[in-house]
Amino acid sequence: MKILVNPARGEWKSELARPVQKSKDIEKIVKPIMRKVKRQGDKALKKFALEYDHVSIKNLLVSREEIATAKLLVSEELQKAIIQAKVNIEKFHEAQQTPDLIMETMEGVTCMRKTVGIQKVGLYIPGGTAPLFSTVLMLGIPANIAGCEEIVLCTPPNKEGNIHPAILFTADLIGIDKIIKVGGAQAVAAMTYGTESVPSVDKIFGPGNQYVTAAKQLAVKKGVAIDMPAGPSEVLVYADESAIPSFVASDLLSQAEHGIDSQVILVASSEKIAQRVMQEVNTQVEKLARKEIAKRALENSVAVVIPNQDKAIDLINDYAPEHLIICVNEADEEDVVSRIKNAGSVFIGNFTPESAGDYASGTNHTLPTYGYARNYSGVSLDSFTKKITYQKISEKGIQNIGPTIEIMAENELLEAHKNAVTIRLNYLKENQ
Amino acid sequence: MKILVNPARGEWKSELARPVQKSKDIEKIVKPIMRKVKRQGDKALKKFALEYDHVSIKNLLVSREEIATAKLLVSEELQKAIIQAKVNIEKFHEAQQTPDLIMETMEGVTCMRKTVGIQKVGLYIPGGTAPLFSTVLMLGIPANIAGCEEIVLCTPPNKEGNIHPAILFTADLIGIDKIIKVGGAQAVAAMTYGTESVPSVDKIFGPGNQYVTAAKQLAVKKGVAIDMPAGPSEVLVYADESAIPSFVASDLLSQAEHGIDSQVILVASSEKIAQRVMQEVNTQVEKLARKEIAKRALENSVAVVIPNQDKAIDLINDYAPEHLIICVNEADEEDVVSRIKNAGSVFIGNFTPESAGDYASGTNHTLPTYGYARNYSGVSLDSFTKKITYQKISEKGIQNIGPTIEIMAENELLEAHKNAVTIRLNYLKENQ
């Protein structure tokens, strides 16, 4: 992790460049997978399970028995923790509900807006080294609150053909009963096209490796919506002399351990702080089980020293971090936070580690990475809904607004649009 | 427009299939355009203006003088109509503001959510046969309310190198001063990469032909967000015996005149109603200036007779129309409306023509077509914002929530995530 002192504005982009993602080669591998699942359905899913997960799956759908057994395999301590996290996440996402909007814009012209749950949603939970039951909470809870009628969860089986018990426990806890043993691009394909076991869905959520990401992009071309474009996870910590260096280092490392393509950025108000944090990083990283991953991620990473606060905030907004931790003295805190324009989620103060939001505080952990915080929001209740507008115009109302519409339509040379009003106005003239 | 009586559920999809869109060939034309604009900037834009718009453009940016002159060329009547529409659209979109959310999910754990305007947005307004000043209102007004810092408007010049005065008048009315004379895929390319005259933006909005649509899709690959996937416009009218056939016909035609690839669907509760509407369509279409376009669109269109209301509603939700007009007897109206799950915008009753929402009632006219009403909302204030979450945890708070995070992180095998909490809890133990 190199230290850059006061780099010129023109260098920000190149110095803080994120690891490049190659998508073309991956697409070439994923396209035939999508095609096979479309044509062969479950048969293809079982074939891919054998090929990629090295397991022969009889029933793709997880049975009630498997779910019941799973509960016995999750420690009481972990069950309690998951339930606590669920309570917090539910509170914060329930509070995101949008009230119906109804107003008369002119006399007799009533406009409305209602929020309706997307009918069928698919949640992808990756397998791999860790069982991401936290992501089951982050996606399943808002899907429930939104009133999605069908929630499908796809996740890859292990070599014994099982799903990690903590994932089954969590899914069951929030009432998801359609859990399918399928991972990778083939899971996304199944939710896109539908198979005998997997219903097709309207929107696909969830993280995944490059194959899953590529498959989600292809799903978009087939009319399925996705949560957001994906990229490796990242954190930016903005620290001044009030930050505790060992805390900052622990936050940088909790991002670095995610993967070798993760990026962590420290923006420090002085070289002294940057040096002290670096020392702590070097000490703490050695103790980590995933230290080899973290060290590789640190190679993509940089500490930037920017004494000027305005300039530091500009750099942060330019970079648009997925996670932003702000540890500045209390007098400045509110002002600095209020000037953040581009970030996925913001963690304020010395006692707010990113992992709080990753797991249990209540905010969602599915966030825009790779600079997409400029133009995308993280997953929220909104992600599982769409908003439909309505209008009802009375006889009086069309008489009020009709002439305006007629003139505008005429000037846009859309005669039939005008006629739709004129015919009504004439009818009212004749029948009054 | 053929009449189908009570088609089986299995036939809905094929009978109501939308006109196919070919994107591959278009992409081949658009890619080199994007590349040239990226490399040559304004020079490429001027070259394309010569090639496609048959005009030599000196200054791509519309001058203050041009805007001042435009105002003199717009009739007072049209000015008044545009101002009235603006008032209504502003009212309805201002009411869409989301209040900040702040809550303590546990003692000492404060979670927040704020709405922040996307910094730089680009609005594309097509040229062609009609000057779509209404779209300037529909995109520019919410962009303003959202607090977008930079709003760029691109629209193609005519053969004299001018922009239609009504477009300039409307843009000026809502305070957009960066109006660029550039159309087609090259406009989207300019807003994606930026040129000397056109700033790059974070999100691109607006309708357009197939080239514009293809360019927007390519822009997405470059990290720019877009409003929604595009498709030809469509309306579905659901009419029972209480509907006035001439009104229904006028609404069907006001959609059919949009383009030869538009689709209009009538769902009628009886064959008699369908027949009477068809008669009216055949009479009214002959009087239209755009009758050739409308007739071609009617070839893609179908009247479906479904006496059973439940089944009719199922068909509507399956089709997911961009515009849905509901003309049923008043006793059923509320119930029918409440059961609509998939639609862009809903128009209720005999005196609510679609053109009201297209122009002036207050709702937005940029809506999901082509079945995307299943998984996308229309453009609203939300489209111009992103929601950022925040959290601040106190010393007491991390002591409350810390153990939950530690257990979850440990079970996801993310040790550094756990450490970020442990190091803080230990610090507090030592310093208390």
TrEMBL record, chains A, B:
Its cofactor is Zn(2+). NAD(+) binds at residues 124, 186, 209. The keyword Nuclease does not apply. GO terms for molecular function: histidinol dehydrogenase activity. The active site is at residues 322-323. Substrate binds at residues 233, 255, 258, 323, 358, 412, 417. SUPFAM superfamilies: ALDH-like. Its EC number is 1.1.1.23. CDD domains: Histidinol_dh. The keyword NAD applies. Binds 1 zinc ion per subunit. Pathway: Amino-acid biosynthesis; L-histidine biosynthesis; L-histidine from 5-phospho-alpha-D-ribose 1-diphosphate: step 9/9. HAMAP family: HisD. Catalyzes the sequential NAD-dependent oxidations of L-histidinol to L-histidinaldehyde and then to L-histidine. Belongs to the histidinol dehydrogenase family. This is Histidinol dehydrogenase. It comes from Belliella calami.
